[in-house]
Design goal:
By secondary structure, this protein is of the alpha+beta class. A 6-stranded antiparallel beta sheet has the order 13-12-11-16-15-14. Strands 2-1-5-4-3 form a 5-stranded antiparallel beta sheet. Strands 7-6-10-9-8 form a 5-stranded antiparallel beta sheet, with helices on both faces. Helix 11 (254-267) packs antiparallel against helix 16 (399-436), helix 21 (625-636) packs antiparallel against helix 22 (643-655) and helix 23 packs antiparallel against helix 24 (711-728).
């Protein structure tokens, strides 16, 4: 059998407590021969009383297990774990079998004297170990401890740590040692600093343990020290990487991402000064091109950070340009596509410094002693260059530091490229959205318009908010505000399609509720036709949706008809300054289908102010929508004389300087009333003779307005429209002339049948009326009314009128 297994200790004790059997293992453990011990009381072997639980089990005659302190023959105290088993002899008297296993290490002075390997082991341990007495004075230290302290054991023996090395942090070590000796409790302590004679800081982990005798009295203490420098540096590197992962890329802004990388490197203690230079194309959001070899490159300083306030090391301000001439060290680093570390004495770096006296001066003045240049590369393309410098940190950058810098810069490069791509997409989407919104508002007699459109300013994609002002027949005007669900290019494209659809439906002169019904059907069709490949695989059906408010104002009757599809209600400011939000039927958002829309008509006083807006104006993370509505009411309660100033007043009150969390559209419309002298209306009987009468009345009215040049064309239009009403329509028949920006002729009848052009054959007696109207008028059309339809035609006013 390999090795030696320690013998079991076995003792038999009779009912009176006398020892009956003494095994050889017990002899070896305690030193008593059987002849000396058999018959004596087992209590004489105890160095201390039995533990309470063991004593209770013995009294109750139950099996027990516990640690028992025994007295060796030479007086030493030995603690051993024993097991007691109750037995009966042949006569039925109680016995105890006490067993245990002898420890494998030396337990007595005699045995320790026979085992010198124990001391040799402690002395040659590969970790520093020292032993101190009850006064914290050195008793002994192994070889590696004396090497670490830089003194021999004889020089330090009998001295405290503070007497050996009266410098911090040894005052802390001395205090901790005395705490261990006083309390008898082990202390674990970590320390980062320089050992005596060392230049580079080290990390140390120390275990200060009490040394107790057999009675538990503290007789001294031991100190075991482990050099954990590499583990400490590894933890530090992981902390830097973790910090970079958490902080870099929190926004989709190129400049902010560059600032975050510089801040992480400096605040984590990795570098004392960091600069981030980016290609112009990256800052603009364009696709960066591969850098041509041996060609000068101009970059722009995107960010810089220093441990010193104000970045005094910098020779280029943020936003300034940095030119890398051909053949210089930074350009070669970019071409190599990997980082490099340098010291000011390196020839390549000296050449680069001499090219700029300001750069050479700042290196000398701030004692910059270590530099790393790391290219910013993502997806195989170079984005810029990062400089890391040290002047307050005494250690130069190591190869491990370079690997850490490359890892950190690679993470930042991906975030920068994402920000660049977002900048490009945002610019494209914003340009698309701007192109789809009205370039200018037409001048209208019905309303005076002012508006504001603010794309979101918090880094998210732009939304699909839109507005429109659409001139309608009869000097009326349609006001539209809408908001498409979602953000980005797809939302902008959907917004453009809906705006075009609204304009098309408005040209048909549909009532607001009918227009929203048609628009709802269109949104449902779009949702069905566009699969995930269009909207994105993560989106499902139902992603195409929108809210909309559509209002039609008539300056002749002062009536305003409105309908809304899930959109916030408009605010109305009356001429006396009162503000109220119109209680319109809500209507479902566009895209749900199957639910009706309702129109509501109100009569507006002249100089009333309508405020139409999207939810981005009144909603904000910091408050409920009711707060936004209250702020809007407050802003409109004292409108300025100029609508433009009122727009600014509203935005100042509701946005309070914060960037918009969502797109914001605000449109203000001040109503006007068309002068009664510019409108003339006649009721016509359903009699063919009414045609001539209508033509005559129209000519007289034009003469009164001074529009005699338009009499001939107008009389022909009136004649054809009245004839058409008599032939295909029915009572009541009404003729109306309106002089606004154009000359408008309207004929209404009681039939809802829509007119249409048709090609008349050579010998046909009719079919040419509307064709003639279309040739004489600049625009013409028809619209449904509550009692039938109205056919209208517009002519430009003669020059100078």
């Amino acid at each position: 059998m390999q090795g030696r297994v320690p013998e079991d200790v076995a003792v038999v004790v009779d009912a009176g407590g006398a020892i009956m059997v003494w095994s050889d293992g017990a002899r070896r453990l305690l030193g008593y021969e059987p002849a000396e011990i058999v018959g004596t009381a087992v209590a004489d072997l105890l160095a201390a009383g039995l533990p309470e639980s063991t004593r209770r089990h013995v009294e109750q005659g139950r099996r027990w297990t516990g640690e028992v302190a025994l007295r060796h023959r030479d007086g030493d105290r030995i603690v051993i774990r024993l097991r007691g088993t109750p037995l009966l002899d042949a006569e039925g008297r109680g016995l105890w079998l006490v067993t245990g296993t002898a420890p494998a290490f030396p337990t007595t002075r005699a045995e320790r004297g026979r085992v010198p390997l124990w001391d040799l082991t402690l002395r040659q341990l590969p970790v520093p170990v020292a032993v101190y007495d009850r006064d914290a004075r050195l008793v002994g230290a192994n070889d590696i401890m004396t090497e670490m302290m830089g003194r021999s054991e004889e020089e330090m023996k009998g001295l405290t740590l503070w007497e050996v090395e009266p410098n911090p942090p040894f005052d802390t070590y001395d205090r901790l040692q005395r705490d261990v000796l006083r309390t008898g409790e082990m202390i674990f302590h970590e320390q980062y600093g320089k050992a005596p004679g060392e230049v580079r800081p080290h990390a140390w982990s120390m275990f200060l343990s009490p040394l107790k005798d057999g009675t538990g009295t503290v007789q001294g203490m031991s100190a075991t020290v482990f050099d954990t420098t590499e583990q400490s540096w590894a933890r530090r590197r992981l902390a830097v990487i973790n910090e970079a992962s958490l902080r870099i890329g929190s926004t989709l802004d190129v400049h902010r991402t560059a600032e975050e990388m510089a801040e992480v490197a400096v605040t984590a203690g990795f570098a004392d000064f960091v600069t981030v230079d980016l290609l112009e194309s990256v800052i603009r959001g364009d696709e960066p091109w591969p850098l041509p070899p041996d060609t000068p490159v101009t970059l722009r300083r995107a960010a810089q950070q220093s441990v010193l306030e104000g970045n005094p090391e910098s020779v280029v301000d943020v936003g300034g340009t940095v030119r890398y001439p051909a053949g210089t060290l930074p350009l070669r680093t970019l071409a190599a596509a990997r980082g490099a570390r340098h010291r000011p004495g390196d020839p390549e770096l000296m050449e680069w410094l001499k090219a700029s006296p300001a750069r050479a001066e700042t290196v000398t003045r701030h004692l910059i002693h270590s530099v790393m240049m790391v290219p910013l590369r993502a997806r195989g393309v170079t984005l810029g260059l990062v400089h890391f410098m040290r002047h307050r940190t005494p250690e130069s950058f190591s190869e491990d530091d370079l690997l850490l810098a490359e890892d950190m810069v690679a993470r930042a490069a991906v975030s920068l490229d994402n920000a660049r791509r977002f900048t490009r997409e945002r610019r494209t989407a914003l340009a698309l959205q701007r192109s789809l919104l009205p370039e200018r508002i037409p001048e209208l007699a019905a309303v005076d318009i002012a508006y504001r459109y603010l794309p979101t300013g918090v880094g998210a994609d732009i939304g699909g908010d839109w507005f429109d002002v659409i001139p309608l027949s009869g000097s009326r005007v349609a006001l539209v505000v809408g908001d498409v669900v979602g953000h980005g290019l797809h939302a902008s494209a959907t917004m453009g399609r809906l705006r075009t659809a609204v304009r098309t439906l408005a040209d048909v002169d549909l009532a607001p509720d009918e227009l929203l019904t048609q628009l709802d059907d269109l949104v449902i069709r779009l949702d069905r036709e566009e699969g995930p490949e269009v909207r994105g695989a993560e989106e499902t059906s139902g992603q195409v949706g929108a809210t909309c408010l559509y209002a039609v104002y008539d300056p002749v009757s002062r009536s305003c008809t409105m309908a809304r599809a899930g959109h916030p209600p408009p605010a109305l400011v009356t001429p006396d300054g009162g503000v109220r939000f119109l209680d319109l039927p809500t209507g479902p958002p566009l895209g749900l289908g199957g639910l009706p829309f309702e129109a509501s008509e109100i009569r507006l006083e002249e100089n009333s102010l309508l405020a139409l807006y999207t939810d981005g104006l009144i909603e904000a993370p910091g408050h409920d929508i009711e707060v936004g509505v209250s702020l809007l009411r407050q802003a409109l309660s004292k409108p300025a004389d100029a609508l433009e100033e009122t727009c600014e007043q509203v935005l100042r009150t509701l946005l309070t300087g914060r960037p918009a969390e969502d797109d914001v559209v605000l449109m203000l419309a001040r109503t006007a009333v068309l002068d009664a002298g510019k409108v003339r209306t006649w009721q016509l009987p359903p009699d063919p003779a009414a045609v001539a009468r209508a033509r005559k009345m129209a000519g007289e009215q034009l003469a009164e307005w001074g529009l005699t040049e338009a009499e001939f064309a107008t009389e022909l239009i009136v004649s054809e429209l009245v004839t058409n009403a008599l032939r295909y329509g029915g009572a009541p028949i009404e003729l109306r002339l309106i002089r606004d920006g154009t000359l408008i002729c309207e004929v209404s009848d009681g039939s809802s049948t829509a007119p249409h052009l048709r090609r008349a054959r050579v010998f046909d007696e009719g079919g040419r009326g509307l064709l003639l109207v279309a040739q004489l008028a600049e625009r013409w059309g028809s619209r449904q009314t509550a009692t039938g339809k109205t056919i209208w035609a517009e002519q430009p006013l003669p020059a100078g009128v």
